[in-house]
Amino acid sequence: MPTTPTTQRTTPTTPTSQGTAGTIPATQGTAATTLTTQGTAATAPTTKGTAATNPRTKGTAATTPKTQEATVTSATTHGVATPTPTTQETTATSPTTQRTAATTPTTQETAAKTQTTQGRAYTTPTTQGTAATTPKTHETTATSPTTQGTAATTPTTQGTDATTPTTQETDSTTPTTQGPVSTTPTTQGPVATTPTTKGTAATTPTKQGTASTTPTTQGTAAATPTRQGTAATTPTTQGTAFTIPTTQGTAARTPTTQGTAATTPSTQTTAATSRTTQGTAATTPKKQGTDAMTPTTQGTASTTPTTQGTVLQLQPDKERLLQLQQHKEQLLQFKQHKRQLLELQQNKEQML
């Protein structure tokens, strides 16, 4: 595999830059070259999901992207040294799918996904290219790997890539690779220190690396990964929105936004904690909510039983009413008889 990795590693030497320009990435594309920080390996993007050409800048510095891959080499963390990073890069080829939307800075999305994968598309990815600082948010998502869609705040940007998300979904097949990369992420994780250079992604690397465990969502949930590995059915969203995954996590109906509801994304973040829902029980959450209503129904039935009981009480009343009516009739008869008796007595007296 080393040879293949090498291909992926075309930028291995650059890796150093991967984390080097961490701060610049914030520029959000301003410094195309800086993008290197992003690790935007434009060409590399294919690799691990570097936002296509400018994933970072949203497309500014295609060449710089190499940097991202460069980090991969730093991924020597894998322990094997540069060759090992190739492992990560290995996934890179599959990531290409992920990067399919590379040019589409929907890439952002792509980057977003990559970020989850690479765990590096720090700040920029999120920004989609606009808010350099926001990118960190995406980074934040990195920490919430699960989120890949978690980035509640970021989702907005992510949402921007709503159209691209499809791409992200396209990556769903890649996610499988991503999942396999899950082991590689570990290497990436070690690269975590390097990511530090990346800057914010330091923790994110965990994502990349820690994602090993998380990979279930990111990669393991190959089937679910369709979206990002999250809301299998709703994945379109980003794979976050629980019940409404479509949304990005929160604005289920807004899902198209993919995260338009930045505030709502918080929910997505919540989903992060509920990771199970995040990707696994995405649809289930709805059920959960539905069940919640159903219990109400059950409770309602509870009142119904009361009604039933009431009915039981009413029936005796009906019988009593019947009896009363009968008594009434009898009384009427008695009255009639009484009258007749009176008449007879009168007649008798007259006779006498």
Automatic annotation (TrEMBL):
This is Uncharacterized protein. Residues 54-74 have a biased composition (Polar residues). Residues 1-53, 75-285, 294-309 have a biased composition (Low complexity). Residues 1-309 are annotated as: Disordered.
